[in-house]
Amino acid sequence: MHLHVNGTLHDLPDDAVAPEMPLLWALRDALNLTGTKIGCGIGACGACTVHVGGEPQRACVLPLSAVGTRPVRTIEALGAPDQPHPLQAAWLAHQVPQCGWCQSGMLMAAAALLERNAAPSDADIDAAITNLCRCGSYPRVRRAIHAAAAARRAAAPARKR
Ligand code: FES
Ligand code: FES
Question: Is the pTM of this model over 0.85?
Answer without folding.
Answer: yes
